[in-house]
Amino acid sequence: RSLLNLAMISILNRPHELKAHLRGALTNGVTTQEICEVFLQVSIYAGVPAAVDSFRIANEFFQENGVSVG
After folding, report:
1. How far apart (Å, rounded) are the C-alpha atoms in residues 54 and 42?
2. pLDDT tens profile 4-29
3. Which end of the chain has the least Cβ crowding within 10 Å, N or C?
4. How far is CA 64 from CA 12, 20, 41, in A?
5. How does the average pLDDT of the chain come out, rounded?
6. Stretch 32-45: mean pLDDT
């Protein structure tokens, strides 16, 4: 469910909600790699601009919260 939420929020261009759901996804055990895979799918099905924004927001969130990517 967390992965679906991330994809839908990315496609709907809701950056503030995306940050909240990134926190929830990590709490639910989703890895940063899985989050990146969701955004890659967003780029294919919803367009590169939506994915680029989502990657940027996620990277900011990860840095602000000391989450290692990989």
Report:
1. 9
2. 999 999 999 999 999 999 999 999 99
3. C
4. 23, 13, 25
5. 95
6. 97
Interhelix angle for 32-46 vs 48-64, to 10°? 160
**Buried residues in 15-47 as b, exposed as e (16+ CB within 10 A):** eeebbebbeebbeeebebeebbebbeebbeebe
What is the amino acid identity at position 27? T
pTM assigned to the model: 0.91
